[in-house]
Amino acid sequence: MWRRPPNKQQSQQLPRIWRDKTNARVRRPSQLSRGSRLFTPKRSAPSRRPLPRWFWQTLGLLALVAVLAAVLLSPLFAVSAISVSGTVSLPSDNIKQKLPLGQNIWRVPVSAFEDQLRAAYPAIQDVSVDKGLPSQLKVTILERSLAVGWQSGGKLYAVDGQGVAYGELSSPPSDTLLITDPANVAVTLGQPVATPQVISFVLNAKSSLEKDAGLTITGAHFIETTFDVSFQAKEGWQVMLATDRGLHPQISSLQSILKEKHDLIHEYIDLRVQGLAFVK
To answer: Angle at which helices 247-260 and 196-211 pack, to 10 degrees?
Structure first.
């Protein structure tokens, strides 16, 4: 069969392997010249099968357990020092004995120990236990301050501005108002005997009676309930006020009575009813 002879110029421009094909000659790789290339498919390396997810989860869990065990069991975190600040009358050494010396600091229940200290010492108004890493506990205490003395059942108690009885007194407090409870209601330390509003009214009333009305108040007592209070004046008579009413109108009425009817007062001035005043 006739075929067109190859163009010599075109044959020289083709790669040698293609020239071999145009000449219809097949050569083995070993017979190829050094300048020719033989392209063969590249074989990829077999891929490794990834580790299952449960393996990594188990490994992470074991690492976490190891870290927690080291933290909870290490002697580095054992409580070795306890500091107490803010105490005035409370014994610091006794307070330290309530805390877990030697226990792991991470296992110290702070809120539980704060409640324990409040229950053990009613004179504590507020307390906070803070952790200082790696092995210190700091206790900050705010003690209650005396607002009034409270007499009930033949005993004297210290009462703060919140109306909470927090301790017993051996004698009536000096320069502090003593309130007597004629009903002799039992007093429990750490519990309120009156509301903060009543205590505030009584203290403000005493100050106003002495400053604005010019009286000298030697004591006070409630009349049946804490809504009515009677102040004992040095002159020998009493001033009865209502704790659930405004203080200023009652003091203004008292000032007017003292100016107009001072000589008629022998036993008491009752200002508990709004707009009225009873003098005896």
So the answer is: 30
